[in-house]
Specification:
Strand order of the largest sheet: 1-2-3-4-5-6-7-8
Strand content: 5-15%
Order of helices and strands: EHHEHEHEHHEHEHEHEHH
Distance between the termini: 29 Å
Radius of gyration: 18 Å
Low-confidence stretches: none
Mean pLDDT: 93
Number of helices: 11
Helix content: 40-55%
Bound molecules: zinc ion
């Protein structure tokens, strides 16, 4: 039996969550017009993408590029079955995101103390307290929450991240009913053995949690890590169109794995994504034209 292929006919679907307009655009210095962002998302919908992390309700002062989050969401025509998620850092962001009609709120806490300080300006304990404050707001509006763990596979300041550090964050998420967790490889330090160790530790402790994996291609092994995830039974991956992105607060972090490359790989491994590779490649060209430079997707 193949290690990577679907395990049964019912196991043929893989979910691709597009994060380019959030994770990618937030690193762009020049403001991208809201209508241009909306046009990219609508082209992604037209290509068959149904899960998008569109923007972020962080402070507009911290990330001016995404200050138009509510306006962007208001412009989107969502096809049936589409899920539009947004990052939410705290209670105030949760109120704004709920008012803007997000389908899912994504909270994020780093697994390491130093990255949490650099990224969020607060330690892990404070970040988890903020999450505990906003979780009831999401519940009140009936919006599901996805818990993301940043630097899940390695920290640029502290090096290796122990599974215990991941479990600490996921335990807090889990206690508030979060069952969707993303492990983020914020600075591209994941390798297949590190992914295996992390996924197995989490499965052992929280078997009811659905994991998604978010890799960066900083060291060229992003898709190898996707293969490791497939072999471990993970069926949701995050990527950005054209390989846009990086983390503005993590030194040396380059782009996310590229959505076109990921979709090609998943299809070749026997999965259905509902996405047209040809149309997706056209969207990558559209984004490259918008930014005025070629993108790293292959
Ligand atoms: Zn990323």
């Amino acid at each position: 039996m193949s290690l990577f292929a679907p395990r049964s006919p019912a196991d043929r679907h893989a979910t691709v969550t597009e994060v380019g307009t959030r994770d990618g655009f937030q690193a762009e210095r020049t403001f991208i017009a809201t209508e241009d962002k909306a046009a990219v998302i609508e082209a992604l919908f037209a290509a068959g993408v149904r899960s998008i992390e569109a923007t972020s309700f962080v402070s507009p002062r911290a990330v001016p590029q995404l200050a138009d989050a509510a306006d962007l969401l208001a412009r989107l025509q969502r096809p049936a079955g589409a899920r539009v998620a947004a990052l939410v850092p705290n209670a105030r962001g949760a109120e704004r995101a709920a008012a803007a009609g997000v389908d899912m709120m994504v909270c994020f806490v780093s697994a390491s103390e130093s990255h949490c300080q650099a990224n969020l300006n607060k330690g892990v304990a404070r970040a988890l307290d903020d999450f505990r404050e906003f979780a009831p707001i999401a519940a009140r509006f009936g919006v599901p929450v996805r818990g993301a763990v940043a630097v899940a596979f390695g920290c640029p300041f502290e090096g290796e991240v122990a599974p215990a550090a991941l479990l600490r964050v996921i335990e807090a998420y889990h206690a508030h009913g979060v069952r969707h967790v993303t492990l983020g490889d914020t600075t591209g330090m994941a390798t297949p053995p590190v992914v295996e160790r992390a996924v197995e530790a989490i499965r052992g402790r929280f078997p009811d949690v659905e994991l998604a994996l978010h890799f960066h291609n900083t060291r060229g092994v992003g898709l190898a890590c996707v293969m490791a995830g497939l072999a471990l039974g993970v069926r949701e991956f995050e990527s950005s169109i054209g390989g846009l992105g990086g983390c503005p607060f993590a030194p040396g972090a380059t782009g996310n794995i590229c959505t076109e490359d990921l979709v090609y790989l998943l299809h070749e491994c026997g999965y259905e994504t509902g996405i047209s590779l040809e149309r997706l490649c056209a969207v990558a060209l559209q984004v490259a034209a918008l930014l005025g430079r070629p993108l790293p997707g292959q």
